[in-house]
Amino acid sequence: MRLIPKEIESLWTLFTAPTIWALHFLTCYITAAIHCAKADTAASLGTTSLVLGMVTVAALAGIALSAYLAWRQWGFGSGDPPHDEPTRRDRLLFQGFATLLLSGLSFVAVLFVAVPLVFIEACQP
Amino acid sequence: MFRVGISAEGADPCRRGNAGHIASGDLKGARAIFRRIFPILLVPLTGCSGVQSALAPAGEEAAGIYQLLLVMVVGGVLVWLAVVGLLLHAARRRKVPWTEEQAGRLILFGGVAFPVAVLLALLAYAVWLMPVIRPWFTQQAPQPEMIEVTGEQFWWRIRYPAVDGMPAFETANELRLPVGERVAFSLEAADVIHSFWIPVLGGKMDMIPGRTNTSSLLPTKTGVFRAPCAEFCGTSHALMAFSVIVMEPADYLAWRRAQAAGNGTRGSEGERLFAFHGCAGCHGIRGMTQAASLGPDLTFFGQRQTVGAGTLANTVENVTRFIRNPDAVKPGAKMPAFDMLPAADIAAIADYLVGLK
Q1: Would you call A36 helix, strand, or coil by DSSP?
Q2: CA-based max dimension of chain B
Q3: Cβ-Cβ contacts under 8 Å, A40 against chain B
Q4: How many domains does chain B have?
Q5: Which residue, A73, B131, B246, B326, is the most exposed by fewest CB within 10 angstroms?
Q6: DSSP assignment, residue B237?
Q7: By residue range, what is the domain housing residue B301?
Q8: For B300-341, what is each residue's pLDDT tens digit?
Q9: Is the ipTM of this complex over 0.85?
Q10: In the structure, what pLDDT confidence band is assigned to residue B140 with cuts at 50, 70 and 90?
Q11: Same domain, B299 and B326
Q12: How many CB atoms lie within 10 A of CB A75?
């Protein structure tokens, strides 16, 4: 059994990281909204914060994995961009590099989305 | 203020400049134009202080907002200086091209790492400051007193709750608060959306019909301040404001006691006419008439800063003007004109109202 997925050439892997970012965003905001709507006003976010913190760690791990796979697809940085030759290899490298950049963006975005988890302790009535 | 600034500092040099010196050189022309524009540049500075400025905070929440503004502006200026510095570096006379590796490193650190770190720091700072700017007062014990404020076209109905044996009472267009004590507001609107904003004390909170919003403030300095309606609500939106007077707690308690007790009767001609001409059908004056509450309560009207919710100074002349034709002073005001009353009667009523101290 493989620990790391086999290298594949598909456009779909490009969206892995942004998709994790979107799911993380929705999970955080919807969970907090439901928690605050159902709880009393000014209820503490304690457990919810903890759960969402774990979701955040999982999301970051997923994005890091996606970044590693993209790095591998990019040949571990062996060649420099722009990879614009009309060849199969350049297409593969270009896609790998684009995926790596998107993973970086998504990683930062997930961190930014998680900032309120650290500082906001209770629901606002 | 705009016109004064121009004429005092700008007009004379401009005229001299125009008379003959512009043609003598570009530099002098530019200087003349600068002299003309300079006073205008100074005008925004008048917003840095005064009774309605978020830049002169007198409350904990406003101080938090001011601090946030300073940090964001300083952060922005530093980033801007760095970018301009890079620009000058790129445009320098003796160009030595960077190697591709150096350029790549600049893009990685200056274009990725630096913005991410700065944005994360500013975001974390702003989110960390949020509870200061919008306190979670419902968690506090004891609960702060809840003053009810209702926005109506184009004035403010203010209800103080009963406390310490003093009954609840209603007043209008003037809010008094004790210094150093947290107060909470229950905000409603009677007709359209208004917004409650005391710039020197804290941030805005909308007043929405059919909904009760809450907000809380902690005044830290005594003084008289102005609070405008911050959401367009009709023709007289710009004339809808209230005064805020932050007082020492002892004075505040005395004021509340007097307000709750009411004016009592004065036995004056103006008082008789106030009831006779039907003013009392809409306006309440505690201790004098049945509590009508269609229009603003007028108990101790003479103590208020303004006439017509922040529109005019509180003088007999202005009250007379307002009674004669409110719509001329405040377009769209719901109060009908009373210009059919004898001038002497209006004057007597105005005299009576301004005398309610």
Answers
A1: helix
A2: 93
A3: none
A4: 3
A5: B131
A6: G
A7: 269-354
A8: 898 998 888 888 888 999 999 999 999 989 998 889 999 898
A9: no
A10: low
A11: yes
A12: 14
